[in-house]
């Protein structure tokens, strides 16, 4: 049965059991892509489950595009949010660290640049932040990022170039102030 017919049966006739066919059809691919982001099987299972629950709850907002891609996009957003949340939790205030940094101007300047870069990345739109994080933090190639975010590989490469230029300008402007 086609995805559209299944969704119609669920929405119009209340046949909620049909959603199991969608889960069977797309859980494998969604799991694989999400595992590529999360690198943790337990978290991946949780996120995939949340993605299907969210997809079911929002079936009426599905626009008739490829259903598997739509569910993948939901899972990707949930995974990236989970990664960001975990990263924030791992961050420890510098006052609590018992490590002494070398007292030289290079490390201070390097720290300032890293901080400026993190702040500039934090001000980017969500899609741009996700592209940067997937490319630089997760070492994903343009093709993988494109598949994860539903973009073309060329679009990802163009966006990466523009984002880098934008970040350079922001950081240089802040340094000049």
Automatic annotation (TrEMBL):
Coiled-coil spans in chain: none
Keywords: Sigma factor, Transcription, Transcription regulation
One of the protein's GO biological processes: DNA-templated transcription initiation
Annotated SUPFAM superfamilies: Sigma2 domain of RNA polymerase sigma factors, Sigma3 and sigma4 domains of RNA polymerase sigma factors
CDD domains on file: Sigma70_r4
InterPro entries per the UniProt record, alphabetical: RNA_pol_sigma-70-like, RNA_pol_sigma-70_dom, RNA_pol_sigma70_r2, RNA_pol_sigma70_r4_t2, RNA_pol_sigma_r2, RNA_pol_sigma_r3/r4-like, WH-like_DNA-bd_sf
Domain of life: Bacteria
Ranges of residues in domain RNA polymerase sigma factor 70 region 4 type: 115-167
Domain RNA polymerase sigma-70 region: from-to ranges: 23-89
GO molecular function: DNA binding; sigma factor activity
Family from the record: Belongs to the sigma-70 factor family. ECF subfamily.
Protein name (database record): ECF sigma factor
UniProt organism field: Segatella baroniae F0067
């Amino acid at each position: 049965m086609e995805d559209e017919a299944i969704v119609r049966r669920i929405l119009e006739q209340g046949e909620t059991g049909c959603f199991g066919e969608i889960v069977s059809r797309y859980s494998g691919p969604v799991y694989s892509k999400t595992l590529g982001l999360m690198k943790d099987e337990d978290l991946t299972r949780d996120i995939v489950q949340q993605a299907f629950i969210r997809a079911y709850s929002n079936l009426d907002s599905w626009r008739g595009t490829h259903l598997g891609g739509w569910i993948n996009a939901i899972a990707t957003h949930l995974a990236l949010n989970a990664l960001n949340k975990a990263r924030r939790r791992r961050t420890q205030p510098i006052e609590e660290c018992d490590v002494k940094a070398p007292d030289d101007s290079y490390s201070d300047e390097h720290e300032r640049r890293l901080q400026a870069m993190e702040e500039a990345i934090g001000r980017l739109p969500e899609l741009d932040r996700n592209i940067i994080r997937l490319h630089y933090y997760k070492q994903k190639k343009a093709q993988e990022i494109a598949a994860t975010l539903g973009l073309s590989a060329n679009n990802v490469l163009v966006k990466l170039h523009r984002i880098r230029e934008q970040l350079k300008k922001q950081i240089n402007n802040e340094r000049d102030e």
